[in-house]
């Protein structure tokens, strides 16, 4: 189900995505790599100290070498400057490399944490959110943080050390000149705070517009056959262009803020520089300062202002990262509605006795789908559900697999309430074959073995044979190694369904759920699949959800549902004899068989052997 961004924001918990919280989480991810962080810190301190060398050599040259005509000192000064430049390059290289290593590891951990958390969330969360938006958060938003950690964090830490060291030294050399420079900094801080909030909001709009583009791209590429069948290419191109234009406008808005912010910071820096130059020149003319001192001091002013200028540019990355971090935190702050208890019981091998007791359920606080619903599935028997669309049949399967939890009542299996058992121990004993076939973009072997990755080759082939799939698989150029394409696009509907049955067979589940498994197939494919299902269901508890009543005639018990309630139950023959809702559904599907079935019910010959 698609939802617009405003609806999504209303349903998500309010995020706590401050810059401090962002750095705190990043530090948590890198704290275990303290040797690399110490090495980077040493390099950063060395860089900060080396920054003093060249201004000092400059001052010494102007004040002592030139007036004293010390020609022999010039080679040493040149060597000193070159050596300092080489050491600065080496320490910058080592600090960049170590910080990049730490940062990349932090990003890897964060991306894995985000994906792991997504896997823990319930099916309802994915019903409410768009796939493209979630993909954008795992890829684009995390990449934004990658820029911050790989380059931004290094720049901030290096500049912080340089700023503190240079400011301290300048205060020691001439506190009055230093205060002139520092007087502009409160204005810089206020300017930065003012623009930072606007820039973060602007960059969040950028990230959301990227999400819109990703969602549209994902929707249209996965529905390309629908688009082409309705000749909707031009319509989709226009829709994509609209979203791309929204992304462009959001980016332009962020650029405009940056274009105003950075010149203001530069202006304040030049004001400080001008004040130092004018006041320092006056002091030099009164011989209170030497020429070398004022030249060196001007160099220190540049060293002091460079971190501020770089920070003003880094703030662009910081606010982008903060906006992305807020979107990441929104996902990490989600709690699954279906969760496993800490003391959950690990379900033993089940017989398959299932009971629904007074179950009431509604999706997303909407209209109730089930109301005080009761149902019993006996171990080893075939139970069928029939009824009009929207009667709640698939919802029962979702509750049985615990994709959702009921708001009232309970579902039990072999007497164990589903809310009390481990999710993995429950679902590992279930096999699902549905009308919506889930296949991965890979080989036939990989898709069959998905239910049991450790299965032997012989077991995979046996499952293929039991599902009546082996013959068509061997007709393919690469047999079990044949690529099936995205969602099995290279296979027919019947072939895809037989692969899903083979996958269920390989899992060897105790309980089988068939959700409209043959509703969209032709008669020949249906017969092949019915044979495969007969092997799959042998000795297992089975729940069949069907519109085609021909597929459930052999069921031990049939429940007829209407508006979330059981209105009839019994065998095929007994329900036909009742002349109720089931009889009406049967007559709608098989009007020509009414008299024949009526006679067979009367003579007791209606149910074929299983």
UniProtKB/TrEMBL annotation:
<protein>
    <submittedName>
        <fullName>ABC transporter ATP-binding protein</fullName>
    </submittedName>
</protein>
<comment type="similarity">
    <text>Belongs to the ABC transporter superfamily.</text>
</comment>
<dbReference type="GO" id="GO:0005524">
    <property type="term" value="F:ATP binding"/>
</dbReference>
<feature type="transmembrane region" description="Helical">
    <location>
        <begin position="177"/>
        <end position="195"/>
    </location>
</feature>
<dbReference type="InterPro" id="IPR003593">
    <property type="entry name" value="AAA+_ATPase"/>
</dbReference>
<dbReference type="InterPro" id="IPR003439">
    <property type="entry name" value="ABC_transporter-like_ATP-bd"/>
</dbReference>
<dbReference type="InterPro" id="IPR036640">
    <property type="entry name" value="ABC1_TM_sf"/>
</dbReference>
<dbReference type="InterPro" id="IPR039421">
    <property type="entry name" value="Type_1_exporter"/>
</dbReference>
<feature type="transmembrane region" description="Helical">
    <location>
        <begin position="264"/>
        <end position="282"/>
    </location>
</feature>
<feature type="transmembrane region" description="Helical">
    <location>
        <begin position="153"/>
        <end position="171"/>
    </location>
</feature>
<dbReference type="Pfam" id="PF00005">
    <property type="entry name" value="ABC_tran"/>
</dbReference>
<dbReference type="GO" id="GO:0005886">
    <property type="term" value="C:plasma membrane"/>
</dbReference>
<feature type="transmembrane region" description="Helical">
    <location>
        <begin position="76"/>
        <end position="95"/>
    </location>
</feature>
<dbReference type="GO" id="GO:0016887">
    <property type="term" value="F:ATP hydrolysis activity"/>
</dbReference>
<keyword id="KW-0547">Nucleotide-binding</keyword>
<dbReference type="GO" id="GO:0015421">
    <property type="term" value="F:ABC-type oligopeptide transporter activity"/>
</dbReference>
<keyword id="KW-0472">Membrane</keyword>
<feature type="domain" description="ABC transporter">
    <location>
        <begin position="354"/>
        <end position="588"/>
    </location>
</feature>
<feature type="domain" description="ABC transmembrane type-1">
    <location>
        <begin position="38"/>
        <end position="320"/>
    </location>
</feature>
<dbReference type="InterPro" id="IPR011527">
    <property type="entry name" value="ABC1_TM_dom"/>
</dbReference>
<keyword id="KW-1003">Cell membrane</keyword>
<keyword id="KW-0812">Transmembrane</keyword>
<keyword id="KW-0813">Transport</keyword>
<dbReference type="Pfam" id="PF00664">
    <property type="entry name" value="ABC_membrane"/>
</dbReference>
<keyword id="KW-1133">Transmembrane helix</keyword>
<dbReference type="InterPro" id="IPR027417">
    <property type="entry name" value="P-loop_NTPase"/>
</dbReference>
<dbReference type="InterPro" id="IPR017871">
    <property type="entry name" value="ABC_transporter-like_CS"/>
</dbReference>
<keyword id="KW-0067">ATP-binding</keyword>
């Amino acid at each position: 189900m698609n939802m617009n961004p405003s609806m999504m924001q209303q349903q998500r918990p309010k995020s706590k995505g401050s810059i401090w919280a962002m750095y705190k989480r990043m530090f948590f991810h890198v704290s275990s790599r303290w040797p690399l962080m110490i090495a980077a810190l040493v390099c950063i301190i060395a860089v900060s100290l080396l920054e003093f060398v060249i201004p000092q050599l400059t001052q010494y040259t102007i004040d002592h070498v030139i007036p004293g005509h010390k020609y022999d000192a010039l080679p040493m000064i040149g060597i000193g400057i070159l050596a300092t430049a080489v050491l600065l390059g080496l320490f910058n290289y080592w600090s960049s490399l170590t910080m990049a290593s730490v940062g990349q590891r932090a990003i890897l951990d964060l991306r894995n944490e985000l994906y792991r958390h997504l896997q823990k969330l319930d099916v309802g969360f994915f019903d409410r959110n768009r796939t493209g938006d979630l993909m954008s958060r795992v890829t684009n938003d995390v990449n934004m943080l990658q820029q911050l950690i790989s380059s931004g964090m290094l720049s901030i830490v290096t500049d912080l050390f340089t700023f503190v060291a240079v400011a301290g030294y300048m205060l020691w050399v001439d506190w009055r000149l230093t205060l002139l420079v520092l007087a502009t900094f409160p204005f810089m801080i206020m300017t930065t705070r003012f623009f930072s909030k606007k820039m973060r909001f602007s960059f969040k709009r950028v990230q959301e517009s990227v999400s819109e583009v990703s969602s549209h791209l994902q929707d249209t590429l996965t529905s390309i056959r629908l688009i082409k069948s309705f000749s909707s290419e031009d319509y989709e191109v226009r829709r994509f262009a609209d979203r791309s234009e929204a992304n462009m406008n959001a980016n332009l808005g962020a650029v405009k803020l940056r274009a105003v912010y950075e010149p203001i910071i530069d202006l304040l820096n030049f004001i400080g520089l001008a004040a130092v130059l004018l006041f320092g020149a006056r002091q030099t003319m009164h011989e209170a300062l030497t020429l070398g001192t004022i030249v060196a001091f001007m160099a220190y002013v540049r060293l002091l202002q460079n971190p501020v200028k770089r920070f003003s540019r880094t703030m662009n990355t910081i606010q982008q990262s903060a906006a992305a971090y807020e979107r990441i935190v929104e996902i990490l702050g989600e709690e699954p509605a279906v969760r496993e208890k800490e003391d959950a019981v690990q379900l033993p091998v089940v017989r398959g006795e299932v009971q629904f007791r007074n179950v009431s359920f509604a999706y997303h606080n909407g209209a109730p789908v089930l109301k005080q619903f009761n149902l019993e599935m006996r171990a080893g028997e075939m139970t069928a559900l029939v009824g009009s669309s929207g009667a709640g049949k698939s919802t029962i399967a979702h509750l049985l697999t615990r994709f959702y939890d009921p708001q009232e009542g309970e579902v039990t299996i072999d007497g164990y309430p589903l809310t009390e058992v481990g999710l993995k121990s429950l679902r590992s004993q279930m096999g699902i074959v549905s009308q919506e076939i889930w296949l991965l973009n890979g080989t036939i072997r990989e898709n069959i073995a998905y239910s049991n990755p450790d299965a032997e080759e012989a077991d995979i082939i046996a499952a293929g044979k039991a599902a009546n799939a082996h013959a068509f698989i061997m007709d393919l150029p690469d047999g079990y190694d044949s690529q099936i394409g995205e969602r099995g696009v290279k296979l027919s509907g019947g072939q895809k369904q037989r692969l899903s049955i083979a996958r269920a067979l390989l899992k060897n589940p105790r309980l089988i759920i068939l959700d409209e498994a043959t509703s969209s197939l032709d008669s020949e494919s249906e017969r092949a699949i019915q044979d495969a299902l007969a092997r799959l269901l042998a000795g297992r508890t089975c729940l069949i959800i069907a519109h085609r009543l021909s597929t459930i005639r052999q069921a031990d018990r049939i429940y007829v549902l209407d508006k979330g309630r059981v209105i009839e139950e019994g065998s095929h023959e007994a329900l036909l004899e009742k002349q109720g809702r089931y009889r009406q559904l049967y007559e709608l599907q098989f009007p020509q068989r009414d008299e024949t079935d009526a006679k067979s019910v009367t003579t007791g010959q209606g149910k074929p052997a299983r």
